[in-house]
Amino acid sequence: MQLLEYPRDSYSLDGTWQAIPDQYEMFRDYFDDFVEDDDGESAALPDDDGQPALSFESIYEPSASGSDDITDFNIYDGYAVDLPASWGEEIPEFRHFEGWVWFARTFDRDEFDEDDRTFLRFGAINYKAEVWLNGERLGDHEGGYTPFSFEITNELQDGENVIVVRTDNSRYEDGIPNESTDWYNFGGINRSVDLVSVPESHLRNFKVETSLTDDAVNVRIDAWLDGPETGADGSVVLPELGVSEPLASDGDGRLSAEFTVDQDDVTLWSPESPQLYDIALTYGEDAVADRVGLREIEVQGSDVLVNGEKVWLRGIALHEEAVGKGRALDTEDVQTRFQWINELGCNFARLAHYPHTEEMARTADEEGILLWEEVPAYWDVNFGDEDVQELYRQQLRELIQRDWNRASVALWSIANETDHNDDTRNEVLPEMADYVRELDDTRLVTAACFVDETDDGIVLQDPLEEHLDVVGVNEYYGWYYGNADDLEDLQEDTDGTPIVISETGGGAKWGNHGNEEDRWTEEFQAEIYRGQIEGASTNDQIAGMSPWILFDFRAPMRQNEYQRGYNRKGVVDQHGRKKQAFHVLRKFYESEKF
Ligand code: GCB
């Protein structure tokens, strides 16, 4: 099933919600007991699936406050938090707590413009979520960085409606990611919450694909329908290009159109000219609109081509976080990140190690920054477990179906630093690469891999290579091992698959100075960059790089005197103060080589 996707008018449920941490994970049991013990009046009955439903009066009842009722954990008396937010930043007493936190808020049915069917959409909740409306359980979701929605048409009631969400940012052995990562586990409702109301039969999602032949731009559009009437045709227009075409129905919920535009009449999307065009689709009463770029991305030999032209990927990697906000970035934070990216002279960014807010990709579309997007299959994934594989596919699907109309997205990455000596991994990852291509074969598939040191020098011998269009290589010569210019010993291989150095770098504390041999100084870090740049720019198989990392980020496993909870490999610190390596990289990206 396609996600119910945007862009559409929606009613924002961001703003103040009530929250209570549930440190001993007791409240749900209490609610279940309450349902059994109560004589019926206020308790909700078990739902159709036999799931014990939550009595929402017991968890959210303004009038209970101050009365004789049990109010120890009435959400109404909880903490007021301003969503979207990483709750650890909003409730300082619980800053490092990992576990269950309950959220609730009300809205009035008259507040929003209601159509036939209404959906409740969450941009992302880290890591698990369970959701109720008016005491009816809507469902649950696993995966901390992608959107999901529930239809609430039948649960909506007149007047006040109550949403209750149980979030859980515990770390799980069978999770994706699993229990250990080198980033902070910000819990909460980290992205926007919306009500989306649509006609009974409506467009769930659509996809625009471009390919180029001779002088023509070939465009294919697919759209997916939901509702009782999915047999009619729809239409699509791109007014600036004079395109107005029917969307032909296959009679089974899918519409499509194929048409050609003269290349002379189109400005193709590229980093130099990030041209976007309006697009509008209609089906019956329903309409959606967006801005899309037309472009083609492919590889030829060891090169990455955009619209047939070779592009060297001048990149930088980044996490999604901001001081005091955790993972809930606002528009200003997104803008600041693109300012740094542009100042460095980048045409490429790696959004590590999980899907970032969709605003990043929308802004990259406008700014002409090619993107590497990835799911958090990081280090040790329990690859052999079928449920984990299903969760893996789900996370890929939710990311790809969210961002497949973003012209900026060039690479889908399926994994980071997984063990290429693990046979199960070597069976599962090619399946994931195939799955990505089934969903979207207009981008390149990649993964961040390791290299090995052998008698023949540094070689890439990950069996996954033959399943990838571009091989990402994470290497830390000059920091964890060897010398920075050892990268020059990386052997070009006969296969010639383009390599992107997806990570390289070293730690430096901003303002800490010394000479080039002193670890943790800006000088030491800058010297690593000089060596790496030399190696990367002299190897023809290397098609770009995204050094680690744009800014210092919180990392619980980094606790030495220079780190104190931060990974210090940023070329700027967490406050945006530039280190020397920033200027070294900028100079390279501005050089005549490009
Ligand atoms: C890596 C990981 C990245 C770490 C980085 C480091 O290879 O992919 O998540 O933060 O190394 O700093 O060691």
UniProtKB/TrEMBL annotation:
<keyword id="KW-0378">Hydrolase</keyword>
<feature type="domain" description="Glycoside hydrolase family 2 immunoglobulin-like beta-sandwich">
    <location>
        <begin position="202"/>
        <end position="295"/>
    </location>
</feature>
<dbReference type="InterPro" id="IPR013783">
    <property type="entry name" value="Ig-like_fold"/>
</dbReference>
<keyword id="KW-0326">Glycosidase</keyword>
<dbReference type="GO" id="GO:0005975">
    <property type="term" value="P:carbohydrate metabolic process"/>
</dbReference>
<dbReference type="InterPro" id="IPR036156">
    <property type="entry name" value="Beta-gal/glucu_dom_sf"/>
</dbReference>
<dbReference type="Pfam" id="PF00703">
    <property type="entry name" value="Glyco_hydro_2"/>
</dbReference>
<dbReference type="InterPro" id="IPR008979">
    <property type="entry name" value="Galactose-bd-like_sf"/>
</dbReference>
<comment type="similarity">
    <text>Belongs to the glycosyl hydrolase 2 family.</text>
</comment>
<feature type="domain" description="Glycosyl hydrolases family 2 sugar binding">
    <location>
        <begin position="90"/>
        <end position="199"/>
    </location>
</feature>
<dbReference type="InterPro" id="IPR006103">
    <property type="entry name" value="Glyco_hydro_2_cat"/>
</dbReference>
<dbReference type="InterPro" id="IPR017853">
    <property type="entry name" value="GH"/>
</dbReference>
<feature type="domain" description="Glycoside hydrolase family 2 catalytic">
    <location>
        <begin position="297"/>
        <end position="591"/>
    </location>
</feature>
<dbReference type="InterPro" id="IPR051913">
    <property type="entry name" value="GH2_Domain-Containing"/>
</dbReference>
<dbReference type="InterPro" id="IPR006104">
    <property type="entry name" value="Glyco_hydro_2_N"/>
</dbReference>
<dbReference type="Pfam" id="PF02836">
    <property type="entry name" value="Glyco_hydro_2_C"/>
</dbReference>
<dbReference type="GO" id="GO:0004553">
    <property type="term" value="F:hydrolase activity, hydrolyzing O-glycosyl compounds"/>
</dbReference>
<dbReference type="InterPro" id="IPR023232">
    <property type="entry name" value="Glyco_hydro_2_AS"/>
</dbReference>
<dbReference type="Pfam" id="PF02837">
    <property type="entry name" value="Glyco_hydro_2_N"/>
</dbReference>
<protein>
    <submittedName>
        <fullName>Beta-glucuronidase</fullName>
    </submittedName>
</protein>
<dbReference type="InterPro" id="IPR006101">
    <property type="entry name" value="Glyco_hydro_2"/>
</dbReference>
<dbReference type="InterPro" id="IPR006102">
    <property type="entry name" value="Ig-like_GH2"/>
</dbReference>
